[in-house]
Amino acid sequence: MYAGADFLLMPSRVEPCGLNQMYAMRYGTVPIVRRTGGLKDTVIDYGDPGGYGVCFTRASVGDITHAIYRAIELYSDKEKMKSTRMQIMELDNSWDRSAQQYIDVYESIVSKERKLNGKSSIGKESPVQEEINLTPVSPDPDEQTPALQNTDKNLPEPSVLINAGIEEIPLMDVKVKAPEAASALADEEIDEQKI
């Protein structure tokens, strides 16, 4: 249905996320949306620079009618309509893009920290490392699989982690299990009485 339509009208009063407009755009259907929640975040009005949808502000008959007239105006300009469809089908709404934005933020924090001459903002040496070396250690007698231990002596003790040198985060008494343990646990049957 999305691919067969020219426009998708979403006059939502409240829209915390909004996926329908993204599905529609993927198939070349131009969204007509009210500027609210996720719709406001994912659709830019074609009258704005880089825009590709039709947006309106109030959930009223007048605003919706005006938006539909603007959509008809867009539709009558065949070249503009074709370029808008091509533009919206090429939008990247994947997790790859979102994940990269988070990585960029984290890298900018680490970069700023490194510029502080290796000192963290709490006055301790910055433990920022390129990699952490983990090796198996002898298991506890009560454990069936070995825990992993940090062998990099430049990192802080396991009881406290300095997150990019910015804040101290106390760690709970958690042990990292070897990968074999995870597969062994997955193969065990669940005892419903323990649940």
Descriptive report:
This protein is an alpha/beta fold and 195 residues long. It folds into two domains: 7-89, Rossmann fold, CATH 3.40.50.2000; 95-188, no CATH class. The protein has helices spanning 20-26, 37-42, 61-76, 78-89, 95-115, 179-187; strands at 7-10, 30-34, 54-56, 134-136, 148-150, 160-163, 167-170. The strands form three sheets. The protein has a three-stranded parallel sheet with strand order 1-2-3. Residues 128-135 and 155-195 have low confidence and may be disordered.
What keywords describe this structure?
3-stranded parallel sheet; 195 residues; alpha/beta; Rossmann fold
The number of domains: 2
Overall outline: elongated
Return residue spans where pLDDT drops below 50 for at least 5 consecutive residues. 128-135, 155-195
The number of distinct helices, counting runs of at least 4 residues, comes to 6
Cα Rg: 27 Å
Strands ordered across the widest β-sheet: 1-2-3
Relative strand content: 5-15%
Please outline the major beta sheet.
Answer: 3 strands, parallel
Element-level helix/strand string:
EHEHEHHHEEEEH
Mean pLDDT: 74
Structure at a glance:
By secondary structure, the protein is of the alpha/beta class. It contains six helices and seven strands.
